[in-house]
Design a protein that fits this description.
Layout lengths: L4 H6 L3 E10 L2 E11 L4 E5 L6 H9 L3 E9 L2 E2 L5 H6 L2 E4 L11 H7 L8 H7 L1 H5 L10 H14 L4 E5 L7 H15 L5 E5 L3 H6 L3 E6 L2 E7 H5 L2 H8 L4
Parallel strand pairs: 3-8, 3-9, 6-7, 7-8
Antiparallel strand pairs: 1-2, 1-4, 4-5, 9-10
Length: 243
């Protein structure tokens, strides 16, 4: 159960059971249960400050674990440090992007690379704009290009579970369109599981398979994304916006 291809295929990409977590003694998440299958895109939505980013950071290993289980491809990881979870296939693209600004685009990608399907050539095919700027330093990129690089760098680690925290926040509409194309192309790969936290609810629901809504650190709704997108009344009640 620790890494052979057959065992990975036999398990859900992510299972969360009775998870409570937060920062220090403060609990933000309460009794979270969640399953994400291989090849599935799950979107996590909700009002500001309800625990969405905390959930992603907890899966990565960056918060205080209080109770419950986090299982990645059949392996319990809640007691493991973040770097070991990454080695088991958990990739993360944080809100802050955190690209290496003193390295070139190519160096950013290659410095974290691991063997697998996502080679530098395949990543550049996904991000033609980065291919054009591969010799530019991180500090010379626009905000949208830095976000592309943050996703590209995470893909270079060849994750099996990729966590994206607000990937299109604050970006120009053309860049948002480009990143939506990238997300859908990643979805079409068939084996990569995606967990997407996103404030732009309409975009998130239109480009995912299932959704959960979090409020006050608890899951208050779960459904197929298309069903919630089509239900303006429920969407308004849950997150205060009309679809």
């Amino acid at each position: 159960m620790h890494g052979c291809g057959r065992s990975i295929l036999a398990h859900s990409a992510l299972q969360i059971k009775g998870l409570s977590a937060g920062y220090g003694a403060a609990r933000v998440l309460h009794g979270i249960d969640l399953t994400v299958e291989r090849g599935e895109t799950m979107v996590v939505i909700g009002r500001n400050g309800v625990g969405k980013t905390t959930l992603v950071e907890t899966i990565c290993g960056l918060t205080s674990h209080h109770a419950g289980e986090i299982i990645v491809h059949g392996t319990r990881v809640e007691a493991l440090p973040a770097y070991k979870r990454n080695r088991l296939g958990v990739g993360w693209v944080p809100q802050e992007r955190e690209v290496f600004k003193s390295l070139t685009v190519d160096e950013n990608i290659r410095i974290v690379g691991r063997a697998g399907a996502w080679t530098p050539a395949k990543i550049y095919a996904l991000f033609p704009r980065l291919a054009e700027r591969r010799r530019n330093y991180g500090s010379q990129l626009s905000g949208g290009e830095q976000q592309m690089l943050a996703i590209a760098r995470s893909l270079a680690t060849n994750p099996t579970l990729l966590l994206l925290d607000e990937p299109v926040e604050g970006l120009a509409p053309l860049i948002v369109q480009e990143l939506v194309r990238v997300i859908n192309q990643m979805r079409s790969e068939g084996s990569l599981a995606l967990v997407l936290v996103e404030q732009k609810h309409e975009i998130a629901l239109a480009n995912s398979d299932r959704c959960v809504v979090i409020d006050h650190g608890e899951i208050v709704h779960r459904s197929a994304s298309r069903d919630l997108l089509a239900d303006a009344e429920t969407l308004e009640r849950l997150i205060g916006v009309a679809a």
